[in-house]
Specification:
The complex is a heterodimer of chains A (226) and B (233). Chain A is α+β, with helices and mostly antiparallel strands and 226 residues long. Chain A is built from five helices and six strands; from the N terminus they run H-E-E-H-E-H-E-H-H-E-E. Classes of the chains: A alpha+beta (226), B alpha/beta (233).
């Protein structure tokens, strides 16, 4: 004989099971809709390619120890850091080409990052405001005065270890990087180097990588010796 | 008693005579007819060494061996011309750049040459420090101590350039930043020797050519003799 209490309890459990089953079904449907909505937001078309712009490269030449200015058209991103990396990538691609005037293996992938930050005081050059005009208000100056910037170029370890050893070749690489950065980002007045994110004493046994280079020192007249 | 008095008299007379002679010689010393010759010291810094081999400069030679050989060759040439030479290394040893600068600075040299070699480029590359010239100060920062000597270093670079050109070599002039040179307190030039290229851009004399080494060493020695003449006419 089944007692009345047990019958009531059984009924309650049956009702609860049905309610839970219905809730689970609803949750499943909701999750399914969310997944479909996520697929709809996935990129289905290629992103827009940055428009091609003219970039000035200071290309080194081992034969006469000079830096020659070359203007190349290449897609440049709007972000200054990414822009600097793209320009340096193109420069190092030229050096990795078979007919390079300054052969250095590695290519554009050798530039891991370029960080841009306000330049610390380093002589009078870095404090010279860029773009200010006499008679401007402070607010106007704040908009137009470009604070000098320090660029920190992070190179790969393989680039440094495979770089040809020699004072001339290492100096040309450093000066061409500094000059190219300054030519395309005039606010960059100082350049420092890291290799795999770490400070390194020399590039390949000669040129000092521990010091801060003044980018303006590497911008000679066309074809002039650095 | 008279004997003792006589001894004291001799002692006093001798002391007075000795003191007078000393004072006289001290007074006469500045008027000595011939002053000792001025000291002229050259520091030769053979770059690299030990586990720091430098670059490969020839089929079977690395930069550290070449620079040491050039240092030895140049030292004997300068010694034969009466120039005192201090070298930063005499064997295949790894010397820290700071230690190299210490040796040069202790020598108080009139010329410091940092010897290097490279397969890239041609002829001899002469590099002075890229530091901006600065006034000499009582205390100088170690990493930029060369700043007070840059003007003299550029003058030395000019003398070396003239001598090398006179010897028929192609010369490249430049400025760079080398850790050891930037800390030296002497007229300092980094000399990087590259193969001699002919008019067809092919190697006319490689770095392993003893004749070429001797030719470069002789030109550098001639330049340093000229520098001595200019520094101590």
């Amino acid at each position: 004989m089944i007692s009345r209490v047990q019958k009531v309890l059984f009924s309650i459990l049956v009702v609860a099971s049905l309610v839970m089953g219905g809730t689970l079904w609803q949750l499943r449907e909701r999750a399914h809709k969310r997944l479909i909505a996520g697929q709809d937001s996935a990129p289905t078309s290629a992103p827009d390619v940055a428009p091609a712009e003219e970039a000035t490269l200071l290309v080194a030449s081992d034969s006469d120890n000079s830096l020659l200015t070359q203007v190349r058209s290449l897609p440049l991103p709007a972000d200054p850091g990414a822009r600097a990396r793209a320009v340096l990538g193109k420069l190092l691609d030229l050096y990795a080409a078979p007919d390079a005037t300054h052969p250095v293996p590695g290519g554009g992938v050798s530039v891991l990052q370029v960080f841009l930050m306000p330049a610390p005081y380093f002589g009078s050059k870095s404090l010279t405001p860029v773009g200010s005009k006499p008679g401007q208000s402070d607010a106007e100056k704040a908009d137009t005065v470009a604070t000098p910037q320090l660029a920190v170029v992070n190179l790969t370890g393989s680039f440094a270890s495979n770089h040809p050893a020699g004072i001339e070749t290492e100096t040309l690489t450093i000066l061409s990087i500094c000059g190219t950065l300054h030519a395309n980002l005039p606010r960059v007045t100082q350049v420092r180097f890291l290799v795999d994110g770490q400070p390194r004493t020399t590039l390949a046994g000669h040129a000092d990588l521990t010091r801060t280079y003044l980018a303006t020192d590497a911008v000679p007249a066309e074809g002039a010796h650095p | 008693m008279p004997a003792r008095h006589t001894i004291w008299s001799f002692y006093l007379a001798g002391s007075i005579a000795f003191a007078s002679a000393g004072r006289l010689s001290a007074q006469q010393a500045p008027a000595a007819p011939s002053a000792p010759p001025a000291r002229f010291v050259v520091v030769l810094d053979a770059a690299h060494g030990g586990d720091d081999t430098g670059g490969r400069v020839a089929e079977n030679q690395v930069e550290k061996a070449f620079t040491l050989a050039m240092s030895v060759r140049l030292r004997s040439l300068l010694g034969a011309r009466g120039i005192q030479v201090v070298t930063t290394r005499e064997s295949d040893a790894n010397i820290d750049p700071n230690r190299r600068a210490e040796i040069a600075n202790h020598a108080q040299a009139q010329a410091c040459l940092s010897l290097h070699a490279s397969q890239s480029g041609s002829g001899v590359h002469l590099y002075a420090s890229s530091l901006s010239p600065a006034q000499p100060a009582r205390y100088a920062a170690w990493k930029t101590a060369q700043a007070a000597w840059v003007t003299r270093s550029l003058a030395l670079e000019g003398v070396l350039n003239s001598a090398l050109l006179q010897a028929g070599m192609s010369v490249t002039l430049g400025r760079t930043s080398l850790p050891a040179v930037d800390s030296m307190t002497c007229p300092a030039v980094a000399v990087e020797i590259a193969p001699a290229l002919g008019s067809d851009k092919k190697v006319a004399a490689g770095l392993d050519d003893p004749g070429y080494q001797a030719h470069v060493a002789a030109a550098l020695a001639a330049a340093l003799v000229q520098w001595r003449t200019e520094a101590h006419p």
